[in-house]
Design goal:
The chain is α+β, with helices and mostly antiparallel strands and 126 residues long. The protein has a single domain, classed as Electron Transport, Fmn-binding Protein, Chain A (Pnp Oxidase, Chain A, Roll). 29% of the residues lie in helices and 35% in strands. It contains 2 helices and 7 strands; from the N terminus they run ββββαββαβ. Strands 2-1-5-6-7-4-3 form a 7-stranded antiparallel β-sheet. The radius of gyration is 14 Å and the shape is globular. The model has no long low-confidence stretch (mean pLDDT 86).
């Protein structure tokens, strides 16, 4: 299985030291990325471009140990054409799953402040 065929990836950052499981999509230029309707933590975690380790995993975060680790450069986006592209790719690939996630985010916004959308684009470098 290639990274581009994966349903989920584990993204590890080193500053802060955090692992997360994300739904992955591919941009037209070959980069990969992920999107969230609530990017509050994502904006803090990727406030500056970071080196990350990416690994194919299952939905629960269990890594596929037969697949390689990839090193990449991750950048947070809150708007723009690349943001719109990754958002569209993720919505097209995951359809129903994202509808549930969006509904949960809207419910959370009813009882608190509006949450920002965000995306992270990763250039695989090794």
């Amino acid at each position: 299985m290639s990274l581009l065929d994966a349903e989920h990836i584990m993204v590890t950052t080193f500053n802060p030291d955090v692992k997360s499981v994300e739904r992955v999509g591919q941009l037209a230029d070959g980069r990969i990325g992920f999107w969230s309707p609530d990017a509050t933590e994502m904006a803090e975690r990727f406030s500056e471009p970071q080196t990350v380790i990416v690994r194919i995993c299952d939905r629960g975060g269990k890594p596929n140990l037969e697949q390689p680790l990839y090193e990449g450069r991750a950048q947070y986006l809150a708007s723009g054409s690349v943001f719109d592209e990754i958002r569209g790719v993720i919505h097209e690939k995951y359809g129903l799953g994202l509808k549930v996630e969006n509904a949960m985010d809207r419910a959370k916004e009813l009882f608190g402040k509006k949450t920002p959308e965000g995306a992270v684009v990763i250039d695989i470098i090794g």
